[in-house]
Every structure is written in C-alpha cells, then in structure tokens.
Amino acid sequence: MTTDVRRSAPDRFEISLDGTPVGFTQFVELDGRRVFFHTEVEPGHEGQGLAGTLVRQALETTRAEGLRVVAVCPFVKKYVETHPEWSDLVDPITRDILKALPRH
C-alpha cells in the first residue's frame, strides 16, 4: 500500500492510500501561524498510523514554509506533545486564535 500526503485545498492536507483519500487535517492561517483545528481518518483506516503520517508531513511542510504551529486539534496537540522535535515550532492557544476558527 502506498500513502501520499499533499495539500489538497488552501486549508487542508490530505492523506491518500493507494490513490484514495482516507483522511485530512484542516487549519487556518493567522499571523504567520498555521492553526490546526481538526484531523480525521475514515473509519476502517483508523489505527494504521495514517493520522500520524499525515500530521508529521503537515508539520514538516509548515516548518519549511516558515510558519509556526498552533495545535488546537486534540490529535495534533497530542502528537506535538509526544514528539519533542516539534516543540520549537509550537505556539500556545490564545483566545484570539480560538475566535478565528471556523464554527461547525
């Protein structure tokens, strides 16, 4: 099985398995920060490490683009907390950041 992570829209990264999209992480950009607020992997594909692969690639791209990260999404938050190599990239959540997030 082949996985591929790419930016599929201005506000999301998507992971595909053998060419079929199976998950995404969504964000907003705010003042030089990429605020990740939702990550999802389709049922049936959970527990395969796909979300971790997706988030790692999204963080690598974010770093390469010179942006900071705010981890509002519980999965992204846990990922950066358990992978200290990202700690230099992460900014805290503020009230203004939360106000800027889209409402679902």
Strand content: 35-45%
- Summarize the helix and strand pattern as letters: EEEEHEHEH
Total separate domains: 1
- Top-tier CATH class: Alpha Beta
Number of strands: 6
CATH topology description: Aminopeptidase
Query: Given the C-alpha coordinates, what overall shape results?
Result: globular
Mean pLDDT figure = 96
Supply Rg.
13 Å
CATH architecture classification name: 3-Layer(aba) Sandwich
Please summarize the sheet with the most strands: 6 strands, mixed
Q: N- to C-terminal separation?
A: 33 Å
Helix content: 25-40%
Name of the CATH homologous superfamily: Gcn5-related N-acetyltransferase (GNAT)
Contiguous low-pLDDT stretches (5 residues minimum) are: none
What does the oligomeric state look like here?
single chain
Structural class: alpha/beta
GO molecular function, one term: acyltransferase activity, transferring groups other than amino-acyl groups
Domain N-acetyltransferase: 1-96, 5-91
Pfam families: Acetyltransf_CG
Compile the SSE list and pairings:
Elements: E1 3-9, E2 12-17, E3 20-30, E4 33-41, H1 50-64, E5 68-71, H2 74-82, E6 90-91, H3 95-100
Parallel strand pairs: 4-5, 5-6
Antiparallel strand pairs: 1-2, 2-3, 3-4
Describe the structure.
With 104 residues, the protein is an alpha/beta fold. The chain has a single domain (3-100), classed as 3-Layer(aba) Sandwich (Aminopeptidase), CATH 3.40.630.30. The protein has helices at 50-64, 74-82, 95-100, and strands at residues 3-9, 12-17, 20-30, 33-41, 68-71, 90-91. The chain has a six-stranded mixed beta sheet. Strand 4, helix 1 (50-64) and strand 5 form a beta-alpha-beta unit. The model has no long low-confidence stretch (mean pLDDT 96).
